[in-house]
């Protein structure tokens, strides 16, 4: 029985080593396959990542170019609007300056006309005053003349009453 004690463990050990080697080779192959598939997956993932990065980079550059283009268009539009507003202001200034010139000439002409009308009114008022003065003087002269005529008539009447012809002497009246 002693022999069996050595043979059975040796045979079992040989079986174990045989199966263990096969299993370890299979495990190594499996591990190598797993590493290969992992490497392949990593490479594919890296390739996809590079592809996505390139795509993102291209897309980013495209967006940046588009953003820069839009900013340039906005700046150009802003500049054009600013230039248009400046031109409008210049046109308005020119228009209002021309209007001021025209209105200044009009004001000068109207002031001249007003001065002429004031002078004419003053002349007419002076003429009316002179005519009123002449009328008053004429009225005074007429009154004076009428008073002189009345005084002269009274003097004539008094002289006529005092005259001998108007009052004959009493002796002359009885003679008839």
Could you explain how this protein is built, in words?
By secondary structure, the protein is mostly helical. It has one domain. 94% of the residues lie in helices and 0% in strands. The chain has helices spanning 2-162, 170-174. The longest helix is centred in the middle third of the chain and has 161 residues, at 2-162. It is rod-shaped, with a radius of gyration of 72 Å.
List keywords for this structure.
176 residues; 2 helices; 94% helix; rod-shaped
Distance between the first and last residues' Cα: 241 Å
- Biggest pleated sheet: none
- The proportion of residues in beta strands is under 5%
Structural Rg = 72 Å
Determine the fraction of residues in helical runs and give it as a percent range. Answer: over 70%
Please indicate the count of domains: 1
The coarse overall form would be rod-shaped
- Please identify the structural class as seen in this structure: mainly alpha
Uncertain parts: none
Order of helices and strands: HH
- Output the number of helix runs: 2
Averaged pLDDT: 89
Got a strand count? 0
Short description:
The protein has 176 residues and is an all-alpha fold. 94% of the residues lie in helices and 0% in strands.
């Amino acid at each position: 029985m002693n022999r069996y004690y050595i043979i059975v463990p040796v045979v079992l050990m040989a079986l174990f080593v045989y199966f263990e080697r096969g299993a370890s080779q299979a495990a190594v192959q499996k591990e190598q396959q797993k590493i290969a598939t992992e490497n392949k997956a990593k490479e594919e993932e890296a390739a996809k990542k590079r592809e996505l990065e390139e795509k993102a980079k291209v897309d980013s550059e495209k967006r940046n170019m588009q953003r820069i283009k839009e900013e340039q268009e906005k700046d150009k539009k802003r500049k054009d609007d600013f230039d248009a507003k400046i031109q409008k202001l210049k046109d308005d200034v020119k228009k209002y300056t021309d209007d001021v010139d025209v209105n200044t000439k009009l004001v000068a002409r109207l002031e001249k006309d007003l001065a002429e009308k004031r002078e004419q009114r003053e002349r007419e008022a002076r003429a009316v005053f002179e005519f009123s003065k002449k009328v008053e003087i004429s009225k005074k002269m007429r009154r004076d003349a009428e008073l002189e005529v009345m005084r002269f008539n009274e003097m004539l009447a008094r002289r006529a009453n005092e005259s001998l012809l108007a009052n004959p002497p009493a002796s002359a009246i009885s003679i008839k």
